[in-house]
Design brief:
Radius of gyration: 14 Å
Structural class: alpha+beta
Strand content: 5-15%
Distance between the termini: 30 Å
Shape: globular
Order of helices and strands: HHEEHEEE
Number of helices: 3
CATH architecture: 2-Layer Sandwich
Strand order of the largest sheet: 2-1-3-4-5
CATH topology: Herpes Virus-1
C-alpha cells in the first residue's frame, strides 16, 4: 500500500486550500503561456485514500496527482504503474496538480510545463 495510505486525510482542509492555489508565475511574474489551463474545472477528487487505480488492484504508489478536468486521482511517474500519465493517455485531460500535502503546482501534459 502507498505511503499516503497510512496518513489520515485530515487533508480535506488542505485539499480545499490547495485546489484553489494560485497558478505559478514565470520568473518575471507573468503567467505561464499554456492555453490548456482553460480546461481546468472545479473538480472533486475521485478518492482521498490514494491512487484510485492502485487501490482497485492492490498496487502501490509514490506520490499522487489529481486530474483537473475530472478529479481522477492517480499515481505519479515514479510509481510502478504511472496511473496519472495513463489517465492522460486515455482521456487527453491535459492538466494535473500535485495531490500531496504542501504542494501547489500544476502540470500540463500537452505543453510539458508547470502551469
Amino acid at each position: 500500500m502507498g505511503t499516503l495510505a497510512a496518513k489520515t486525510f485530515a487533508q480535506s482542509e488542505w485539499h480545499e486550500t490547495a485546489r484553489r492555489a494560485p497558478a505559478p508565475r514565470c520568473q518575471d511574474g507573468a503567467m505561464a503561456d499554456c492555453t490548456h489551463v482553460a480546461e481546468i474545472r472545479d473538480v472533486t477528487p475521485s478518492t482521498t485514500e490514494g491512487c484510485e487505480d492502485c487501490l482497485a488492484v492492490g498496487g502501490r504508489w509514490v506520490h499522487l496527482r489529481e486530474c483537473l478536468t475530472c478529479g481522477h486521482v492517480g499515481c505519479c511517474d515514479s510509481s510502478p504503474a504511472k496511473h496519472a500519465s495513463a489517465h492522460y493517455a486515455t482521456t487527453e485531460h491535459p492538466v494535473i496538480r500535485s495531490f500531496e500535502p504542501g504542494e501547489d503546482w500544476r502540470w500540463c501534459y500537452v505543453d510539458q510545463e508547470i502551469v
